[in-house]
Amino acid sequence: VLISGAIAAEAPEPKSTVGQSIANFSLRDYRGKAFALDELKDKPVVVVAFLGTECPLVSSYTTRLREMSEKYADRGVSFVAINANVQDSISEIAQWAKKHKVDFPVLKDVGNKVADQFAARRTPEVFVLDAKRVVRYSGRIDDQYGIGYQRPKANENYLVDAIEALLADKPVAHASAEPVGCLIGRTSAPDATSEVTYSREIARILQKRCVVCHREGEIAPFALTKYEEVAGWAEMINEVVQDGIMPPWHASEKHGRFFNDPRLTADEKEQIKKWVKAGAPEGDAKDLPPPRTYTDGWRIAKPDLIIPIQKKPFEVPATGEVKYQYFTVDPGFTDDKWVKAAECRAGNRAVVHHIIAFIRSPGDGPRMRNHTIESDWLVATAPGAAPMSLPQGYAKFIPAGSKLVFQVHYTPNGTPQQDLSHLGLVFTDAKTVKKEVGTWRAVNPRFEIPPGDPNHEVTASHTFRKDTVLMAMFPHMHLRGKSFRYEARFPDGRSEVLLDIPRYDFGWQNSYVPLPPRLLPAGTRLVCTAHFDNSAGNPNNPDPTAKVRWGDQTWEEMMIGYFSMVLADQDLTKGHKTVRRTDMFLERAKTTKPDQNEDLLTKLAATLKSDNAADNLYKFTLLLQDHVPQVDRVDLVVVKDDKVEILLDAHPAELDPQLPGRGAKLPAAKMALAAHAQSDQPVVHEVLSKEKAPDLRFMSRGFASSLHVPVRLDGKPGTVNFWSEEPKAFPPEAVELLRRAAALLDGVATKSRR
Ligand code: HEC
Questions:
Q1: Which residue among 164, 314, 440, 673 is buried most deeply as judged by most CB within 10 Å?
Q2: Please, are residues 199 and 288 in contact by the beta-carbon 8 Å criterion?
Q3: Which residues make Cβ contacts (< 8 Å) with residue 97, sequence separation at least 6?
Q4: Which residues contact 481 (CB under 8 A, 6 or more apart)?
Q5: How far is CA 76 from the centre of its chain?
Q6: Dihedral sign computed on CA atoms, order 130, 133, 135, 139
């Protein structure tokens, strides 16, 4: 077979054809009809676009080309598309043209002769010919899309500018701009004596490193499972592999090793290079590895249960931004379930950016913190994220009566679409489970990124209360996310970077599995540090002039360091005790010396020194949680003008605030908090759900017990409130310490000066 492109990989860049005239050529379109350039004799301008059916950048630009061809038709501009890829068959081209409603000629350039005549290298790459068929512009269409970025809109419209200049009889300002996209898969004669062949070496490398995504029905735009297809992509494969673009991976080499590091070894890279240089020879099919088998449609083992996540298909509009959708499903579990594998399967990949499945357990609090480990996240699907498949003896817990909540982010793609997605679960017998796997987070929803700031820092942290084994980390930010780092600060004072992502890429939501799994002794604090680039220099930035806060939408930001973990000494086959954080506090209180509490109070006071009151309270709360772990939220309420108002609140693990926060006001008359502000003693509610006052009833949606310490705030009566998801979280030892901590906030100016 005469196939693929390779030799050109080492050949010098072909010369630009700008300024040269293009001789007439004739090719057949995908219907078999011949088409010659001369048929457009009377047209003042012809645009020739080299395209491929599977290149992501071609997909981004096809609609734009179609719209331009419609817009310029009246002014005598004709568009012609040429497909010169060996790997794109006539039927694939036909399907592609139909899907994108391409109505200008789409020609097949067998043997890439015309591509050679134009010295075209990539798809998409456009050539603008004047009335004499001299090339006046060649290169990219505009600068909106590139490898790894996407501007909200183009700054430079090279193609449009060239057409307009020619129509106005003016010189073209930019005669060329480097094309970006996939290399054209060219034909050439492979070297039959090559020591590296597809069948022997390359197929194995691809199977190991690429085929999870690059196979029929998976997330990559083309399969790398057959020689003909792979050979057409050979040059491009070499480029993305040598540049480290594929497989996608963003952790710095300097910190940590990872079990799921998919990168090729130096030797594998070298073999790909040699193979491509030799013209991508097939070799002997007898050497092929046995094909890998996958469960049809799933990356996990065959699910025991498949649950549709919507009642009926969700309608995704053609354009615009769709708010995060939340679908709640009652799976009808009448007994507890242990899950060892789970996967969300997007019904329509074209528009589903991600799906996260949360567990909402029945009972008091919104989360299942009171089982053996903190966890409310089941599994997510997102570009680059692997489904959940746990080792033998490890499982996630779904209590009987739980509901499943699915968060789905849809990204419209230009035509109206529908989506019906599914969750697949593989269960395991409770008797075999040794460890409960929890997925939790360090999160900071209280930041504000100034306009134009190229390097805004935000931190968040989480303290492990028991000896914990860290199993995976996955950072989450949006389009301004620049870098992300996880650092462990051990109780003995040492610290270590566990994961460093110097260039965060929103397009890939990888998770990172440390090798070996990391033991984090009780008291270790995980500190996550993120940087955001809100400058115009970040091509993905939707608006460098905006002040950016927390929000669901991609033009807003998030800062979450997710992680998965198990308890080091847990063996559930030997029975388990529920871990109450309050009990851990009491256990520790027995041995706490008085000067340790004084020390804590000094450190707490030190957190209140900056001029950002919200930030102060957040840091105050984090530090407090290290010592009184059962506290979930701290807030400050003041009574004035017959209203109770929340001045500030800090609720560190809260992702999606559903409870009232800063600024919320209610008439004081029936509120328990108004009465507590007048008290001269701290007030404890051991079981909030039994309370009648409307403010307490409302907060009982999130918390099981509370403590209220009267203070004066900004000269008015008020309370410092401590809330816990655990019932009876405020025994006298806790009240004593928290009363003194609250007193530090007495009289503290609560208005941010920032
Ligand atoms: C985690 C899934 C995944 C793995 C693993 C993966 N790819 Fe990809 N690949 C993708 C996706 C998704 C795209 C489309 C990217 C886009 O839309 O911009 C892609 C695009 C490509 C492209 C087109 C050029 C580009 O950058 O858009 C090439 C070539 C490619 N992959 C080669 C490889 C090779 C070779 C390997 C293995 C060494 C590999 N990929 C491993 C998911 C993957």
A1: 673
A2: yes
A3: 30, 106
A4: 475, 504, 506, 530, 532, 557
A5: 44
A6: positive
Nearest atom in ligand 1 to 147's CA: 26
- For residue 319, the tally of other CB atoms under 10 A from its CB is 10
Q: Compute the distance between CA of residue 643 and CA of residue 489 in angstroms, rounded to an integer.
A: 43
| Ligand 1: residue whose CA is nearest its atom 42 | 220
| Amino acid identity, position 226 | K
What sign results for the dihedral spanned by CA atoms 265, 266, 271, 274?
A: positive
Pocket test residue of 4, 88, 214, 215 for ligand 1, highest count of atoms within 8 A of CB: 214
Quick check: 73 and 39 in contact, CB under 8 A? no
Could you state, in chain order, the average pLDDT of each consecutive group of 10 residues for the chain (754 residues)? 36 77 92 91 96 90 92 96 91 88 92 93 96 96 87 91 96 94 88 92 95 84 90 91 91 92 94 93 93 79 94 89 88 93 91 90 53 84 85 90 91 85 95 92 90 96 91 93 96 95 89 91 94 94 93 87 93 77 90 90 91 85 89 93 91 72 87 93 94 91 92 90 93 96 81 48
Using CA atoms, how far apart are residues 367 and 375, in angstroms rounded to an integer? 7
In angstroms, the Cα distances linking 631 to 120, 449, 464 are 64, 28, 14
Question: Are the C-beta atoms of residues 629 and 621 closer than 8 Å to each other?
Answer: no
In whole angstroms, give the CA distance from residue 203 to residue 258: 24
The closest residue, in CA terms, to atom 43 on ligand 1 is: 213
pLDDT tens digits, residue range 423-450?
999 999 988 999 999 999 999 888 899 9
- Residues whose beta carbon lies within 6 Å of some atom of ligand 1: 56, 147, 182, 209-210, 212-214, 219-221, 233, 236-237, 240-241, 245-248, 262, 264, 383-384
Contact 65, 79 (CB under 8 A): yes
pLDDT at 753: 42
8 Å CB contact between 503 and 447 = no
**Lookup: tokens for 34:** 């011949």
Burial class (CB in 10 A: 0-12, 13-18, 19+), 167: middle
Vertex 744, ends 742 and 745: CA angle to 5°? 70
pLDDT at 367: 47
Check residue 751 and give its pLDDT.
59
Given this model, what pLDDT does residue 749 score?
65
Paired tokens of 56: 């992501």
CA of 83 relative to ligand 1 center, distance in Å: 20
Residues near 79 by Cβ (< 8 Å), separated by ≥ 6?
46, 47, 49, 65, 68, 69, 72, 104
Whether the ω angle into residue 521 lies within 30 degrees of 0, i.e. cis, is no
Contact, 671 vs 642, CB < 8 A? no
User: How far apart (Å, rounded) are the C-alpha atoms in residues 489 and 105?
Assistant: 62
Structure tokens belonging to residue 640:
């004035």
Place of tokens 């193979």: 275
Nearest CA to ligand 1 atom 2: 213
Measured distance CA(5)–CA(9) in Å, rounded: 8
Q: Cβ-count burial of 171 within 10 angstroms (0-12 exposed, 13-18 middle, 19+ buried)? A: exposed
Nearest alpha-carbon partner for 320 in 653, 553, 568: 553
CA distance 256 to 238: 27
Amino acid at 481: G
Distance CA 519, CA 266 (A): 31
Q: How far apart are CA 202 and CA 190, in angstroms?
A: 14
Which residue is closest in CA terms to ligand 1's atom 19?
A: 220
